Give the backbone structure.
Amino acid sequence: MISMKIAMIGQKGVSSRAGGIEIHVEEIGKRLAGMGHEVYIYTRPHYTDVSLKEYKGMKLIPLPTINSKHLDAITHTFISSVHSLFKEFDIIHYHAIGPSTMSFIPRIFARKVVCTIHGLDWKREKWGKFAKMYLKLGEIAACKIPHETIVVSNTLKKYLYDKYKRDSQFIPNGVNTPLKKEPEIIKNKYGLQKDGYILFLARLVPEKGVHYLLQAYNKILTNKKLVIAGGSSHSSDYEQKLKSLAGNNKNIIFTGHVQGQELSELFTNAYVYVLPSEIEGLPISLLEALSYGQCSIVSNIDENLEVIEDKGFTFENKNYVNLSQILSFLVNNPDEVYKKRKLVEEYVLTKYNWDSISKQTEQLYMKILKEVF
């Protein structure tokens, strides 16, 4: 087997749950390293300890950036792209459409380039007009510049083909077999018991639709608590809006960012998991909830439907009244919740397996290296 030297650019860092991209890069990166490849991860100093030179077999390259909402990703990607020219990388792999705008730099120097589109970031509400235009340029770049374009969902694959006639490679996100935990930390910190709460766990950004969940929860009668777990991402105003919607309701709990055992306990012991997102790529948080055997309720966008199939409940996107009706039904019909739980765990661990996903990524790299462009 040929040992490759691979660079990952675009992620914030590793050992980070800042977003799905960071989880994706860490999971495939450590496995590629375990296969005998040299994997280099470019990291931003405010997300990964700059003194950390190696993590789970991956070599870390911390480079400076301008830590602001609009300049963080692009400045770090530009510096990383230039730096990569002075290394003998076999593959330079960009993640997300924003960073993909810089993929032309290694490409014009005859390096082998891959871009993964994790979602249509220009749809996100946090971006202004100029940023959205730049991200749309990134979408074009991710289709036109690299030797191969990867997408994490079949919905994105169809979109790129319909719009650009780009025949992209579908390699999804994945999950690990979870270690389930009894409620200890969450019992002591929040007073949470098994099946005693409805869970949202993801970043607190507008496109995740947490405000719809709060509005829906406020309409139902239940003694189950609502747990909103996750940190904000350049969206502190939105976080304040959510807390305003929650008001003084003692049954609504904001945990902030969670990880480790606390995260496992929250996923293990929830009554249902809710993802009311307006847009997605392929939601890792939903895959994780399903891997814990959770009954899930999702908005009926294509990316969520692709994952949930018939193994959960859906509501009309942005319709909090419809969501409240489903929540009320499930709160009062636990048998329906338990039926769905029996369907999901084996399904998701088989279909969305990080080992298989990493192998597919390796095979794509090898194909690129063998071809003459």
